[in-house]
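quick one, 124 residues, struct below
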Amino acid sequence: VQLVESGGGSVQPGGSLRLSCSVSEYGNKRYCLGWFRQVLGKEREGVAAIDNKGTTKYIDSVQGRFAISQDYAKKALYLQMNSLQVEDSAMYYCAADWNCMVRPELPLVDFEFFGQGTQVTVSS
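---
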């Protein structure tokens, strides 16, 4: 599978960005798609995920500010990011995993496939 992100950029605190990801193929009818981010020198962390049933999961720091969505027909994944904070600055990666389901009560774990990433910078 190829995952191609777009939509990153620079924005001031409080601003918004919308990330998009093109998914070349779905390896299973049961799938999870997600967004991860990584700051240089730190571990990659899961930010948000959605599965084929539409179940979503967010990390606490973005809950209420970010919204993940998908369009299966267009093979696309999105992340609407509002009220961006300096701490949101990172490389954001689109991710996919097959034969999985999102469990909101559990932490986000690493997915099998990742894109090349798109940079998001929040600064004044």
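The chain has a mean pLDDT of 96.
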